[in-house]
Amino acid sequence: MNFKNDFVDALFQFLEGHLERNQLLMMIEKPRFQDMGDMAFPCFELAKLYRKSPQSIALEMAEKIEAPIFEKVEAVGGYVNVFLNKREVSQGVVKEVLLQKEEYGTLDLGNEQIVTIDFSSPNIAKPFSMGHLRSTVIGNSLALIAEKYGFRPVRINHLGDWGTQFGKLIVAYKMWGNEETVKENPIKELLKLYVQFHEEAEQNPELNDKGREWFKNLEDGDVEALSLWEWFKEESLQEFSKLYQMLGITFDSFNGEAFYNDKMDRVVEILEEKDLLEESKGAQVVQLHEDLPPCLIKKSDGTTLYATRDLAAAIYRQETYHFAQSLYVVGNEQTLHFKQLFSVLDKMGYSWYAGMVHIPFGMILKDGKKMSTRKGKVVLLEEVIDEAIQLALNDILEKNPRLAAKDEVAHQVGTGAVIFHDLKNYRLNDIEFSLKDMLRFEGETGPYVQYTHARAASLLRKGDYHESEGDLMIDDEAWPVITALMSFPDVIKRAFEGYDPSQIAKFLIELSKAFNKYYASVRILDNEVQKQARLTLVYSVKVVLKEGLRLLGMAAPEEM
Ligand code: ARG
Fold this sequence. Notes:
Elements: H1 4-15, H2 21-27, E1 39-42, H3 44-50, H4 54-64, E2 70-76, E3 79-84, H5 86-100, E4 114-118, H6 130-148, E5 152-156, H7 164-176, H8 179-184, H9 186-203, H10 206-219, H11 223-247, H12 264-273, E6 277-280, E7 283-286, E8 295-298, H13 306-321, E9 325-329, H14 335-347, E10 356-359, E11 364-366, E12 369-370, H15 381-399, H16 406-423, E13 431-432, H17 435-438, H18 446-462, H19 479-497, H20 502-521, H21 528-551
Parallel strand pairs: 4-5, 4-9, 9-10, 11-13
Antiparallel strand pairs: 1-3, 2-3, 6-7, 7-8, 11-12
Bound molecules: arginine (ARG).
Arginine binds next to α13.
């Protein structure tokens, strides 16, 4: 459903080809207020071209422009405003949703091409941070959106399970750790050790050398180092799995950094063959163009780096999946790293590097500052989600104590609150952490959208809705609902093109508000004659809300 093209055609005819169709399409706006029409065309550019006033051009155009679906065309202060025939458009939109159901807005653009999505990727032996939560929910939604557009997402969790920090942790554990306490509460205890290490290292910098030594031992395959590392990894993975299960998120691969240990020699060989490796202060680097610092490949002690493992991973992914696109949902503090990574691949002659995209996001701040793991300033995500679920359960016990699937719905609503709270923000914006905000169920929140969906479901049950053919007389009061429904395919397109789930989250709020207003102004079930037509609209809203929520990785309970 897109009436812009009707407008473009009419404008094109009037202007006798003075402007291209594409240009015209770009110029069409949405009027600021609904009572000013459904589409507007500004005449200010044309005024220059024709050397007339915008007002007089608008007047002239308003008189001549027409199309069957236009009810009225009006000139207002240099704009041509078009009013659509509400009855016809409403019918058209609702019929379209009815016909396509959850396929509404689907597009087969991808042709089954593979998109690898590297997301979540937390670091072993550290708590799952709020930043990792962002990556997790954004990445999951991007995978679902890509799927809707006919791509095949491969979800990869590039676990941070290798690096100098493990040397430090091993040192800390050997000095102050205790097997029993770590087993009881792995993430908390390991974090404590990690924080203690950094505190003590400030007084005693030799500890850092020890840390490096133990990481070297680990890379050299030392049995004690390896078995401690494996144990830390196992305990952490168990904790992370709990979270993923809570959020309903799955991965196709958990190949983390360590997976590439035996694949890095080959990378170094290729770099050597291509004469890209240079020595710099004992280390091996690849020089990049002027505005990028060189990419460090091997340290002077022979140990490898984050970047080396990412190089190996990129090549492995291309060879394994033959991806068309490869996305990295990682915080914007790693922008330089990804620029360097892509640039090295370019220098290596891999043309497929062009399909790689870093999808950065802003930080979660506490009192305007970044939360730092090193200082132990973290919020434990599992506790946050547990609390959200508990609050949702209390809500149900208060408002709908007879609900059968209480626990399941509480789970869906609690996690929904946390997921939506993140996704409604444009990803590049920093977010100030507020537990209260995350656990809010009213206003522009996930539970509000879920509640609207449940309300629609309940109306359909009470009204004994059945799909009907024939004329659908839709009330004029429903117009804001119709225009919202109509925009859904465009919204998905913007979300897809901008890697931006917030488009969908904002849309869901808009549709929910419009629907709740309609619900308050029209007694949907009271009038037998209009009931089925009205319920058909309710059904369309329900379908679109559910599909929108699904694309964000959220459930849509039928009752709550
Ligand atoms: N583990 C890293 C971190 O927490 C993120 C890894 C992102 N993925 C990648 N391929 N580098 O900062």
